[in-house]
Amino acid sequence: MKPTLLVLAAGMGSRYGGLKQLDPVGPSGETILDYSVYDAIRAGFGKVVFVIRHDFEEAFRKLADEKYRGRIKVDFAFQDLADLPGGRKPPAARVKPWGTAHAVRAARDVVDTPFALINADDFYGRNAYEAIAAHLGKCPSSRTPGPVEPVCMAGFRLAQTLSENGSVARGVCDVSPDGRLRGVVERTKISRTAEGVFNEEPDGSKLRLSPDDIVSMNFWGFTPAIFPLMESMFGEWLDAHGGEEKSEWYIPFVVNELLENGRAEVDVLRVDSRWFGVTYREDKPTTVAAINALVENGEYPKSLWKA
């Protein structure tokens, strides 16, 4: 059974200033999302599921109908603030959904194969999709958790993932010599300066990071058994943090908890691609130039969806 690509596309892009997932960056009007779907198709994925907000539905259905119909199966899941387990209710003042892990949970009823998780606004490169697809092809499709859950992630060098236009959030990984993930720490304000690469800590101090650190770009591989595992974990997390207006449940939290409990083995698939995307509107010219260079080098056709 072919794996599924799960695309997290519910964010409006507050720092960017618009629905950046549908902003054209390719020579024939392609979006970063188009390149992700194109790379997934040629890597052997059989379905793509977009996790979106209800107010994005019309735009995404139009996109899927115009570009992806006949090329790959498409489905949708909706990240809803009130979609909580056990009859729990969100705080009255809360306006944001609950983070990336909550977005993955939203797809629990439409994903039934091993799946890869990506951000809609990140360009990961062809070899990342091929590596993840090859790994997922060896994983079971059962929704029943086993003693140890097989997980994988694409590991990027930190230096290859930074923006010149502001800070970025990255999951900084501790990787064993045999390529297994030991832990991941979400660093939310990483910037490159003349003195090096630093993360601004919550107390205002600066933590130096190595440009060679392996980071997660939210390109993970899971089996459907992750959904029942996440359900109980989310309930526990909400009981501890659900009263906070801005707290978020991230995928690295889920992975770390599984690792700490001995419930997962995570293979880090190191990739050589340079990340680029549109975290900030000022990132767009660099992204456009990088994609044009790949097209000129023959990595992609000038028009992805030309009949």
How much β-strand is present in the residues? 25-35%
Classify the fold: give the CATH topology.
Answer: Spore Coat Polysaccharide Biosynthesis Protein SpsA, Chain A
Count of individual beta strands: 13
- Looking at CATH, the homologous superfamily is Spore Coat Polysaccharide Biosynthesis Protein SpsA, Chain A
Low-confidence stretches: 12-18
Tell me the major beta sheet. Answer: 11 strands, mixed
* Gyration radius from CA atoms, angstroms: 19 Å
Helix vs. strand class: alpha/beta
Q: What's the shape?
A: globular
Identify the CATH class. Answer: Alpha Beta
Tally of contiguous helical segments: 7
Secondary-structure element string: EHEHEHEEHEEEEEEHHEEH
Number of domains: 1
Question: Helical content, roughly?
Answer: 25-40%
Q: What average pLDDT do the residues reach?
A: 89
Summarize the structure.
This protein is of the alpha/beta class and 307 residues long. The chain is 26% helix and 26% strand.
Keywords:
single chain; 307 residues; alpha/beta; Spore Coat Polysaccharide Biosynthesis Protein SpsA, Chain A; 11-stranded mixed β-sheet; 26% strand
Q: What is the topological layout?
A:
Elements: E1 4-8, H1 32-43, E2 47-52, H2 57-68, E3 73-78, H3 100-105, E4 115-119, E5 122-123, H4 126-136, E6 149-157, E7 168-175, E8 181-193, E9 196-200, E10 206-209, E11 214-222, H5 226-241, H6 251-260, E12 264-270, E13 276-277, H7 284-296
Parallel strand pairs: 1-2, 1-4, 2-3, 6-12
Antiparallel strand pairs: 4-11, 5-13, 6-11, 7-8, 7-11, 8-9, 9-10
Helix pairs in contact: 1-4
